[in-house]
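FORM 12-B: Structure-to-Sequence Request
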């Protein structure tokens, strides 16, 4: 093979692997060949074309063109590699900063903080300062399972010295984008000019790339991490949350008209499921038989989102599926919040206390910043929790009281920000102290028209591993109850502090005798009723979960209890004392039921009898609506 042929094949292979990434990043095609040549030949020539000029008269460092011929955007070699000094996840950033003194020293230099970090500063003070300043210098990218955006996780990185010192401009002359080089499994950034530059010209880039210049207020707000800005009056919404959130999405085909309730007469009932826990629960139940194909089943109990409602109604009218069309109004954080907000606005009533203040940062950023700044003026608590729309198990979550950090999370993908529970009800364990808890209830939607909702009489609990305090916000074991599943709990040998609902009621009675658990659970049930009424009752054109006689569903609902001056449960009937308010965390589609099946072996058999076969199981289920 000729050398030229080998180079052509190499470039073709490079583009096959990296072309989609380069095109998404906006790398012009004529620079892609130049990039390949530099990577293939180990050329890193940025220093020959670009250099730094020391601060002059308080203007800070400048990054300038040093090549006499300047930089031409049409030159295929006008693309340069820029290294990263640090790649991190926000929930491990402080740990990194504490563990690596060389990293701290390098960041102090990059951020020009030498005059603020001296020998009298403690390690914690230095780490806090660096973490706060990080949001002026960090960039983000998504990394994970490239086949599923649901499993991609945000990472942050800081460019090396000259990359970090390129200034912002609304009229930039260059761009910097991250690049993952698959051949070497390495990440760095690419710098390229977007206009011609002469020797001595300063480089500039747009920190707010992608936000049009005519959206001035949005750019001012998104620019808060770099440039202080206070909203002087409450902003008008720039998005129609009803149209852009509630009516957006593809929920599959509708069932055919005139469909009656399925009639399942044969025994054993055929069940198709990809849940291991369903197979385990039904293994000794003679009323049910597991089958290998969907077409043989009377009950489809599947993990993946179901779309073929019309086809099911036409071809298998007596088959039941475990999902409702448009149930995303319950199971996605942003749609549930938007639905409740829209309904309350149309009915001119206050938001329910069980929904913490919630903002969709992709559509309600201005409203959130106004709320944050108003709370700051009033000296109210500023702790918020940022959650991806589409992840569970506490993945991708950030807790913060730093407005700059929260604003930057918009760059990681679709997220909501919700008021963090700063005063949760705690449970005390002698070997640990007072810890956070959340409670998982299993809820069942049997019908939308008429509305029929059940609750499992047993609930499940998770506890944090360390005593709660409103600090150390990235301490997984202190602020996240899900950590109990994976970490070795303090003072225990097996790493799992498990309490069943009966044992929990005894602990509750001992620690909170003035708040009877029956009253607390009644307030929880009332919350569930309101949630399903919001989601299943269309109002004035707003959508809701679609009725389908062939559908039933199980949801896992996670909630917390918080102290409140205006609450659902007060102490001993004294309404002047603090009370307890349940608040919703999330409702999960396809919840994990391994613990449920272990505690109640007939879990799924009982559920199918209650929801589908019309055989009441009152020992296990209570009807809410």
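FORM 12-B RESPONSE
SEQUENCE OUT:
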């Amino acid at each position: 093979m000729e050398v030229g042929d080998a180079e052509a094949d190499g470039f073709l292979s490079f583009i096959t692997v990296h072309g989609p990434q380069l095109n998404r990043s906006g790398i012009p095609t004529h620079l892609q060949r130049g990039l390949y040549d530099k990577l293939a030949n180990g050329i890193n020539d940025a220093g020959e074309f670009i250099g730094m000029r020391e601060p002059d008269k308080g203007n800070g460092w400048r990054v300038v063109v040093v090549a006499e011929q300047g930089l031409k955007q049409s030159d295929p070699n006008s693309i340069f590699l820029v290294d990263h000094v640090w790649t991190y996840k926000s929930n491990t950033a402080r740990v990194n900063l504490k563990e690596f003194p060389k990293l701290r020293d390098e960041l102090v230099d990059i951020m020009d903080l030498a005059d603020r970090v001296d020998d009298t500063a403690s390690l914690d003070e230095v780490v806090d300062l660096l973490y706060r300043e990080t949001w002026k210098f960090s960039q983000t990218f998504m990394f994970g399972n490239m086949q599923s955006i649901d499993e991609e996780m945000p990472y942050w990185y800081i460019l090396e010295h000259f990359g970090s010192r390129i200034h912002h401009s609304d009229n930039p002359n260059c761009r910097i984008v991250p690049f993952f080089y698959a051949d070497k499994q390495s990440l760095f950034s690419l710098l390229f000019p977007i206009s011609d530059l002469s020797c001595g010209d300063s480089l500039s880039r747009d920190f707010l790339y992608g936000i049009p210049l005519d959206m001035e207020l949005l750019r001012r707000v998104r620019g808060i991490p770099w440039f202080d800005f206070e909203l002087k009056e409450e902003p008008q919404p720039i998005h129609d949350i009803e149209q852009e959130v509630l009516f957006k999405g593809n929920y599959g085909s509708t069932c055919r008209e005139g469909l009656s309730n399925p009639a399942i007469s044969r025994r054993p009932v055929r069940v198709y499921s990809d849940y291991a826990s369903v197979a385990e629960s039904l293994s000794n139940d003679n009323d049910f038989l597991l089958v290998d194909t969907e077409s043989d089943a009377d009950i489809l109990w599947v993990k993946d989102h179901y779309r073929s409602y019309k086809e099911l109604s036409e071809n298998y009218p007596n088959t039941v599926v475990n999902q409702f069309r448009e149930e995303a109004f319950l199971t996605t954080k942003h749609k549930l919040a938007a639905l409740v907000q829209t309904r309350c606005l149309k009915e001119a009533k206050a938001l329910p206390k069980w929904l913490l203040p919630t903002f969709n940062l992709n559509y309600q950023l201005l409203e959130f910043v106004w709320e944050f700044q108003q709370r700051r003026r009033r000296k109210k608590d500023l702790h918020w929790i940022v959650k991806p729309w589409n992840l569970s198990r506490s993945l991708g979550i950030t807790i913060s009281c730093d407005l700059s950090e929260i604003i930057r999370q918009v760059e990681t993908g679709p997220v909501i920000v919700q008021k963090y529970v700063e005063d949760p009800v705690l449970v005390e364990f002698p070997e640990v102290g007072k810890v956070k808890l959340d409670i998982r209830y299993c809820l069942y939607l049997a019908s939308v028209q008429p509305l029929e909702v059940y609750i499992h009489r047993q609930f499940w609990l998770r506890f944090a591993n360390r005593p709660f305090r409103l600090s150390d916000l990235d301490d997984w074991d202190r602020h996240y109850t899900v950590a109990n599943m994976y970490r070795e709990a303090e003072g225990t040998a097996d790493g799992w502090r498990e309490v069943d609902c009966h044992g929990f009621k005894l602990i509750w009675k001992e620690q909170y005798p003035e708040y009877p658990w029956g009253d607390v659970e009644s307030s929880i049930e009332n919350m569930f009723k309101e949630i399903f009424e919001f989601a299943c009752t269309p109002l004035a054109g707003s959508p809701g979960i679609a009725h389908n006689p062939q559908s039933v569903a199980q949801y896992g609902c996670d909630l917390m209890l918080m102290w409140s001056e205006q609450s659902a449960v007060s102490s001993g009937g004294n309404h002047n004392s603090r009370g307890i308010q349940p608040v919703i965390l999330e409702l999960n589609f396809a919840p994990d039921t391994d613990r449920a099946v272990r505690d109640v072996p007939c879990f799924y058999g009982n559920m199918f009898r209650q929801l589908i076969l019309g055989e009441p199981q009152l020992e296990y289920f209570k009807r809410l609506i």
